[in-house]
Automatic annotation (TrEMBL):
Family statement: Belongs to the D-isomer specific 2-hydroxyacid dehydrogenase family.
Species, as recorded: Sedimentibacter hydroxybenzoicus DSM 7310
Domain D-isomer specific 2-hydroxyacid dehydrogenase NAD-binding: 105-284
Residue stretches in coiled coil: none
Protein name, entry field: D-glycerate dehydrogenase
Sequence ranges assigned to domain D-isomer specific 2-hydroxyacid dehydrogenase catalytic in this UniProt record: 5-315
A single Gene Ontology CC term: cytosol
Length: 317
């Protein structure tokens, strides 16, 4: 008998076909936490993107062996609860590095050079007025980029920054990355120094108990008044209330955000009314090819675990 799995996303046909060779699968598109609970009792595997996996859900899943996330981030997993039940968690690193790094440069350029604002300026017919004050912006080339979290995506961004934009790149990470320092020419800085010196501060670290609100009022107070914060990791690495305060009080120049503490963003979030921010709907990896590659990798991880093999991308503990 084939193992039974639940899938909560529409997958490319070839990925569904691949899964179907090994598993009996049920797809409930956009299934949420409660939908999963209602369907999980007889399932051996779960393929999803970002839904919380906690003790309560696992209590409804007596047969579950593997949860495969279609994302590199896995802060939705309660690793302790999964370990206690011998459930394998997997994710999709690697295949999205360049796509996310491209988007991060989009955010850097959009915020620094005010691209959305300039677009509105032209489309609103205001260009004729030659209002000089609005058009000036901030250089990206030869400025300092501080990357917090020098993992695979951080390194991919650093290459673009060094080779494409002649930027000075600082990084802060749990462990020094001596090879990256040598190969790409980035420099290690402790967190406070990085915050004080950087023109662009990029958060790329995973969300964990240690990194929750690691950028808070105290950290904003250290930043340059023309610094721009870019977050493409997880919203809760930054205390959003402190960010809004820093933007309102002009402690920093602006922010480019692909992630938020609450997603989708709440309709009354003050960020929505601010002109010095560029906001995206968590689309870092959202190109057709990369999302297909992530789905394929997630399926391979899932199938390997159900065959009793060690999946290629078990989440680190
Ligand atoms: C990830 O894979 O974790 C990215 O945030 C895209 O969802």
């Amino acid at each position: 008998m084939k193992p039974k799995i639940l899938i909560t996303k529409k997958l490319p046909d070839y990925v569904e076909e691949y899964i179907g060779n090994y598993c009996d699968y049920e797809i409930i598109e956009d299934a949420g936490y409660n939908d999963i609970i209602n369907k999980i009792h007889d399932k051996d595997g779960l393929l999803l993107a970002g839904t919380k996996i906690d003790k309560n859900l696992l209590e409804h899943a007596p047969k579950l062996k593997v949860v495969s996330n279609i994302s590199v981030g896995y802060n939705n997993f309660n690793i302790e609860d999964m370990k206690a039940k011998n459930i394998i968690g997997t994710h999709t690193p690697g295949v999205l590095n360049d796509t996310v790094a491209d988007l991060i440069f989009g955010l850097i350029l959009s915020t620094a050079r005010k691209l959305p604002e300039m677009d509105r300026y032209v489309k609103d017919g205001r260009w004729n007025k030659q209002d000089e004050s609005i058009i000036f912006s901030k250089d990206v080339h030869h400025s300092t980029l501080g990357i917090i979290g020098m993992g695979r995506i951080g390194e991919t961004v650093a290459k673009r920054a060094k080779y494409g934009f002649d930027m000075n790149v600082l990084y802060y990470n749990r462990n020094r990355k001596y090879d990256t320092e040598k190969n790409i020419g980035v420099k290690y800085a402790d967190l406070n120094d990085l915050l004080k010196q950087s023109d662009f501060i990029l958060i790329m670290t995973a969300l964990t108990d240690e990194t929750y609100h690691m950028i808070d009022e105290e950290q904003f107070n250290l930043m340059k008044s023309d610094a721009i914060l870019i977050n493409a990791s997880r919203g809760a690495t930054v205390n959003e209330k402190a960010l809004i305060k820093a933007l309102n009080e002009k402690k920093i120049l602006g922010a480019g955000l692909d992630v938020f503490e609450k997603e989708p963003i709440e309709k009354d979030n003050p960020l929505l009314k601010m002109s010095n921010v560029v906001l995206l709907p968590h689309v870092g990896s959202a190109t057709i090819k990369t999302r297909n590659d992530m789905a394929r990798l997630a399926a391979e991880n899932l199938v390997a675990a159900l065959k009793g093999e060690v999946p290629p991308n078990v989440v680190p503990e």
